[in-house]
Amino acid sequence: MLMILFNKPYGVLSQFTDKGTATARPTLSDFIDMPGVYPAGRLDRDSEGLLILTGDGRLQARIADPKFKLPKTYLVQVEGEPDDATLERLRRGVELNDGYTRPAEVARIDDPGLWPRDPPIRVRARIPDHWITLTIREGRNRQVRRMTAAVGHPTLRLVRWSIGEWTLGDLAPGKWRAG
């Protein structure tokens, strides 16, 4: 079974073609030249990190379908400093416009020392930023960003670090390896 672990850079679409825009944006085809593999799930253009590609339809479904509750862990740089009560709200689940989220695992972490992002995040002189890990077992559209915004700490940078047993490890942005 062919599987690719890809570190999707910021600004890259989680698809192989970009149709419907006047200016072509970077896609998976700019990084991966392998027929017969497709992304198992998506990452927004403004998110970075682990994207799994495979030609195995059953594996794609197991990774992407929320009914399998595969944990997805994100490193999230947020605006402000989330306190214990805020983290507890995320742990219990927060109300979004499409209903309550499932409970999440969340913790404050030190700056993980990731690669520089291009373009860099916006920095505000009087508002600090902090890092958290957030693990969810569902996959609503822009869910992590909406969750952090709902508790008053907008996401500045979002990096998916792992999906189930698969992790980025030392995989550089724009690079891939067989899983």
Give the topology string: H per helix, E per strand.
Answer: EEEHEHEEEEHEEE
Give the helix tally. 3
CATH uppermost class of the largest domain: Alpha Beta
Per CATH, what is the topology of the largest domain? Alpha-Beta Plaits
Count of β-strands: 11
Going by CATH, the homologous superfamily of the largest domain would be: Alpha-L RNA-binding motif
Low-confidence stretches at least 5 residues in length (pLDDT < 50)? none
In terms of DSSP E residues, the strand content is 25-35%
Distance between the termini: 9 Å
Q: Please state the structural category.
A: alpha+beta
Q: What value does the Rg take, in angstroms? A: 16 Å
Overall tally of structural domains:
2
Please tell me what the overall shape is: globular
The major beta sheet can be summarized as: 9 strands, mixed
Range of helix content: 10-25%
Please tell me the overall pLDDT: 93
Which architecture of the largest domain would the CATH scheme give at its second level? 2-Layer Sandwich
